[in-house]
Specification:
The protein is mainly alpha-helical. Helix content is 43%, strand content 10%. Strand 1 (2-4), helix 1 (11-14) and strand 2 form a beta-alpha-beta unit.
């Protein structure tokens, strides 16, 4: 069995009797801090887990985001719908407005990922989204990470 989530913060919620005996837990102890939201209390973007920094790169380093390049650089309507392009351009303008107002990387992240979306609060999405499409193992060379589901399947065998 594999449990992915805030098992250390809320063991009675996520683990039988609050114990992980016989259960593989993710993220592991060394990577549990990646669930800090929106940024670690003891630091900012620079001190965040590599997977989190990668996921925030759209906000703080959009010009180097390959997905954004594919969306905005495609002139093929069969590849990218115009509505998607228009939405991305609005996001880019919003981020540029934050920059013009003097917000740094940490301030932009905290503004976009506000406390109203705190993990485990009603309507929260961050930790669930990260667990579904995130992971704890990041490869700097390829700029890719292996998802929790891959790790869970490997643990199960």
């Amino acid at each position: 069995m594999v449990v992915v989530g805030r098992h250390r913060d809320r063991p009675r919620k996520y683990l039988p009797d609050g114990r992980a005996a016989g259960i593989h837990t993710l993220p592991d102890a060394a990577n549990h801090h990646l669930l800090a939201y929106p940024l670690p209390a003891s630091g900012g973007y620079a001190g965040a887990h590599p997977v989190v920094r990668h996921r925030y790169s759209r906000l703080v380093d959009g010009p180097h985001d390959t997905a954004l390049d594919q969306i905005l650089g495609s002139g093929d309507p069969a590849t990218v719908e115009q509505k998607t392009v228009d939405n991305e351009l609005k996001i880019e303008e919003t981020i540029a407005g934050f920059r013009r107002a003097g917000l740094n990387d940490d301030a932009i992240i905290r503004r976009v990922f506000s406390a109203e979306y705190e993990p485990d609060a009603p309507g929260a999405y961050y930790s669930h989204n990260l667990i579904l499409v995130g992971g704890q193992t990041f490869d700097n060379a390829s700029r890719r990470y292996r998802g929790f589901f891959h790790d869970a399947l490997a643990a199960i065998g």
